[in-house]
Write a structure and sequence with these properties.
This protein is mainly alpha-helical and about 150 residues long. Among the domains are: about 30 residues, no CATH class; about 50 residues.
């Protein structure tokens, strides 16, 4: 009959030299803990604790879904407002017919194409945009040749 430490030597403690660590009676000492790769039995919660944990998890998941739905509704509201503003600009019912790039990007595709067709003037990037976006009544604009001062339609 073979000893267990001869059949399963990896289940027993070894010192730095590779020899078994012996108990007082002279037999090898087994490694403590669960063997590598083996699965634990898990923890068994009381039924009341388990029910509480499940209920809390369900509430968290519902809150997450609610937040996502609220965000979606807010995005729809913003989209409707932007679309209505742009429509009123295209129809000419508003005093300013200026549609900014940010507005164009957030419009439905068909409306964005319609707005692109009606463009009369578009400022060049940089100083022209800054000049036209200035909120002051009087704005001075100057510079060397080729600075983008000429605004052509």
């Amino acid at each position: 009959m073979q000893n267990d430490w001869d059949v399963n030597p990896d289940s027993y403690l070894k010192d730095e030299e590779g020899s078994f660590v012996l108990k007082v009676d002279g037999t090898p000492r087994k490694k403590s803990g669960r063997a590598k790769g083996s699965k634990g039995r898990g923890y068994t919660y009381h039924s009341k604790t388990k029910a509480t944990m499940d209920a809390k998890k369900a509430v968290r998941e519902k809150q997450k879904k609610l937040k996502a739905a609220q965000t979606k509704v807010e995005n729809y509201k913003k989209s409707i407002i932007t679309t209505n503003k742009t429509l009123s600009k295209l129809e000419g019912s508003v005093s300013s017919n200026v549609i900014e790039d940010a507005e164009l990007k957030n419009l439905p595709k068909a409306l964005a194409e319609e707005a692109q067709e009606d463009i009369i003037f578009k400022a060049n990037e940089g100083p022209q945009e800054d000049f036209l976006a200035a909120g002051e009544t009087d704005v001075l604009y100057g510079g060397a040749a080729g600075g983008g001062k000429a605004m052509r339609c």
